[in-house]
């Protein structure tokens, strides 16, 4: 390894050694680097000068200068030692005091006039006190410096041989004092401005740290809130699934217990089969809220389809509620997912039943409305306030008790209507019941035959007899998501 290759690592290690000072205050730690460099230079320089003065001229004057340089070097090393042990302010104060004493001794020995060219270097203690110790230290150092100037002027007066030299000594003292006073005032203003800027910077840094802490705290709170909402949503969905499946199981149980009364199991099997299909549809629709699902479309007569749902709707209502299903208007062909239509009608029927705890009347009718088929559903229940009606399709909004409703019933209804290009309207008032109209676009009857032909062609040679022919249409889960039965 060459010297050039080894120099950067050595230099970096030396800088790292200088930075490893046990000082807590950030400002003092930054200033410690500069003070270490100054003390190291002075200590090494004075030591080399002492050695040189001792070897050059071995007379009495050289020995005095030699010991003076050694004392200055030892003093500087002592200050550096204190600084390396974390005593920054003590080391700086001793450095300033030593500089002022050395300057006073020099002025006492040689006078002010003979050292006029060195006054710039004599300002070093003043600058160190201002930069490292503050305004108070500047003025104390200025007072000591004025005393040193007075000592130098006194020496000049003692060495003066005539009145002209005495007058010149007074003039030098006045000019030096004025220049020094201006410098002290400027340095004081600079320190004041610098301290204000540093204080403002520290306040901004503290504010940034506080804001960062608050942001992190809010992020953690937001994560906890999201987790809580997830758990609440899971609880609501679990309750809703249990509620809806309980209604479907009630239908199945009602059909199963009627076997003993009717004595013919074949008569109740279609109803049980249809209820089971509704349960599968419910599961599929719940999953559709979170990911893309497959919709099975078929073209069918709306009145005929609702008539087949009659065995599922009637068991939903108790004997105290009169149920009327008017499917006399036939020939209204629609293209939709038949299972989803059944689930939508069951959800509305379940809400109507809950709205009439003391009994009442529920009516379902089918009629033509221009180029749409219209399903009218009406109950004589407690009705809804305008505030509740405005939130009828809001996700997870419900006025039912926690164990009876979750607010996903009308979500299923609204999404079914929206996905099939239809429209839904609701009208209600407290004590006046609720009226809901669902409008679905009409389809051509030929679409049913075309669907059947396409299906039979796709099933060849494995044909099976089906009453309805279905086509698979993918749907987008990003479509309208409104929810919640009251």
Automatic annotation (TrEMBL):
Keywords: Coiled coil, Kinase, Membrane, Phosphoprotein, Transferase, Transmembrane, Transmembrane helix. The chain crosses the membrane at residues 66-83, 90-110, 130-152, 173-192. Residues 240-444 form the Histidine kinase domain. Gene3D superfamilies: 1.10.287.130, Histidine kinase-like ATPase, C-terminal domain. It catalyses: ATP + protein L-histidine = ADP + protein N-phospho-L-histidine. It is an enzyme of class 2 (transferase). The keyword Cell membrane does not apply. Residues 201-231 form a coiled coil. Its EC number is 2.7.13.3. The keyword Iron-sulfur does not apply. One of its GO terms (molecular function) is phosphorelay sensor kinase activity. This is histidine kinase. It comes from Lysobacter antibioticus.
């Amino acid at each position: 390894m060459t010297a050039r290759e080894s120099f950067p690592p050595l230099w970096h290690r030396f800088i790292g050694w200088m930075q490893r000072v046990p000082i807590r205050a950030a400002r003092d730690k930054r200033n410690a680097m500069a003070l270490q460099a100054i003390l190291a230079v002075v200590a090494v320089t004075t030591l080399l000068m002492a050695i040189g003065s001792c070897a050059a001229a071995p007379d009495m004057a050289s020995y005095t200068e030699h010991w003076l340089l050694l004392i200055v070097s030892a003093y500087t090393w002592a200050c550096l030692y204190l600084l390396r042990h974390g005593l920054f302010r003590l080391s700086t104060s001793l450095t300033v005091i030593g500089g002022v004493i050395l300057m006073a001794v020099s002025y006492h020995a040689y006078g002010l006039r003979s050292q006029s060219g060195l006054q710039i270097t004599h300002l070093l203690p003043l600058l160190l006190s201002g930069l490292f110790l503050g305004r108070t230290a500047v003025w104390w150092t200025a007072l000591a410096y004025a005393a040193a100037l007075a000592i130098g002027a006194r020496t000049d007066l003692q060495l003066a041989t005539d009145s002209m030299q005495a007058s010149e000594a007074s003039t030098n003292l006045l000019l030096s004092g004025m220049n020094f006073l201006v410098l002290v005032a400027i340095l004081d203003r600079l320190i004041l401005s610098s301290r204000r800027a540093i204080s403002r910077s520290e306040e901004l840094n503290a504010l940034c740290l506080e804001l960062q802490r608050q942001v992190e705290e809010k992020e953690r709170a937001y994560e906890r809130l999201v987790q809580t909402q997830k758990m609440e949503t899971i609880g609501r969905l679990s309750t809703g699934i249990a509620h809806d499946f309980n209604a479907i199981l009630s239908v199945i149980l009602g059909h199963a217990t009627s076997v003993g009364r009717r004595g013919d199991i074949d008569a109740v099997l279609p109803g049980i089969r249809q209820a089971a299909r509704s349960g599968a549809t419910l599961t599929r629709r719940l999953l559709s809220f979170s990911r893309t699902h497959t919709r099975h479309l078929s073209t069918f007569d709306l009145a005929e389809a609702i008539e087949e749902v009659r065995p599922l709707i009637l068991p939903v209502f108790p004997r105290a509620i009169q149920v009327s299903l008017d499917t006399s208007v036939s020939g209204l062909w629609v293209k939709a997912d038949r299972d989803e239509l059944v689930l939508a009608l069951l959800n509305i029927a379940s809400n109507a039943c809950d709205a009439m705890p003391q009994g009442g009347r529920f009516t379902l009718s089918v009629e033509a409305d221009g180029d749409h088929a219209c399903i009218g559903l009406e109950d004589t229940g407690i009705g809804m306030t305008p505030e509740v009606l405005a939130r009828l399709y809001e996700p997870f909004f419900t006025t039912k008790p926690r164990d009876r409703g979750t607010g996903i019933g009308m979500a299923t209804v609204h999404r079914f209507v929206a996905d099939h290009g239809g429209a839904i309207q609701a009208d209600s008032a407290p004590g006046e019941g609720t009226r809901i109209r669902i409008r679905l676009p009409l389809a051509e009857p030929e679409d049913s035959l075309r669907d059947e032909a396409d299906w039979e062609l796709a099933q060849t040679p494995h044909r099976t007899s089906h009453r309805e022919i279905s086509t698979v249409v993918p749907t987008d889960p990003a479509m309208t998501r409104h929810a919640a039965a009251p």
